[in-house]
């Protein structure tokens, strides 16, 4: 199964990552894996990790505000994105430790490269993640709301 995303969003993530040597992060909004998956929007959020060059954390008040925003826009928070300045597109051990919610997308970016994962108990990678293909939508302004 693949998840749809616009090239515009992917370009935005690449620009955010290129502008900051630390890990950038945010939340993905759209519809979930069970319906084929579509990432229609994203919110960039501050990285509040103690060592933002080596990990990321999103403050709970920012998470709640993002959930309210998503709900008002007719979307759902379906995942997170962050960069790996080291260049690895594989989830780290720290990512696996944070992946408590099954069915949550994890988009990892490094420059123009990206890889999408979904968190699952017993996943093939680190016992916590499975890879998900990306279907890149070229249309400008792509946005899909949940059915």
Question: Which helices and strands occur, and which strands form pairs?
Answer:
Blueprint: E1 2-6, H1 7-18, E2 25-31, E3 38-45, H2 60-72, E4 76-83, H3 93-98, E5 105-110, E6 113-123, E7 127-137
Parallel strand pairs: 1-3, 1-7, 4-5
Antiparallel strand pairs: 2-3, 2-4, 5-6, 6-7
Q: What descriptive keywords fit this protein?
A:
single chain, 147 residues, alpha/beta, 7-stranded mixed barrel, 3 helices, globular
Descriptive notes:
By secondary structure, the protein is α/β, with parallel strands linked by helices. Helices cover 21% and strands 38% of the residues. The chain is built from three helices and seven strands; from the N terminus they run E-H-E-E-H-E-H-E-E-E. A seven-stranded mixed beta barrel has the order 1-3-2-4-5-6-7. The model has no long low-confidence stretch (mean pLDDT 89).
Order of helices and strands: EHEEHEHEEE
Low-confidence stretches: none
Q: Largest beta sheet: what is the strand line-up?
A: 1-3-2-4-5-6-7
User: Strand fraction band?
Assistant: 35-45%
Overall shape: it is: globular
Helix content: 10-25%
Distance between the termini: 18 Å
Tally the beta strands.
7
* Largest sheet features: 7 strands, mixed, barrel
The pLDDT mean sits at 89
Pairing-aware structural class of the strands and helices?
alpha/beta
Radius of gyration: 14 Å
Q: Helical stretch count?
A: 3
């Amino acid at each position: 199964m693949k998840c749809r995303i616009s090239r515009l969003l992917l370009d935005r993530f690449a620009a955010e990552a290129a502008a900051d040597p630390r890990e950038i992060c945010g939340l993905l909004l759209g519809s979930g894996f069970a319906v084929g998956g579509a990432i229609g929007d994203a919110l960039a959020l501050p990285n509040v990790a103690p060592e933002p060059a080596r990990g990321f954390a999103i403050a709970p008040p920012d998470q709640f505000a993002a959930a309210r925003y998503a709900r008002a826009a007719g979307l759902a928070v379906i995942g997170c994105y962050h960069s790996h300045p080291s260049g690895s597109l594989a989830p780290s051990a720290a990512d696996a430790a944070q992946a408590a919610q099954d069915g949550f997308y994890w988009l990892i970016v490094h420059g123009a490269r990206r890889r999408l994962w979904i968190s699952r108990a017993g996943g093939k990678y680190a016992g916590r993640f499975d890879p998900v293909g990306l279907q890149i939508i070229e249309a400008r302004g792509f946005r899909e709301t949940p059915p």
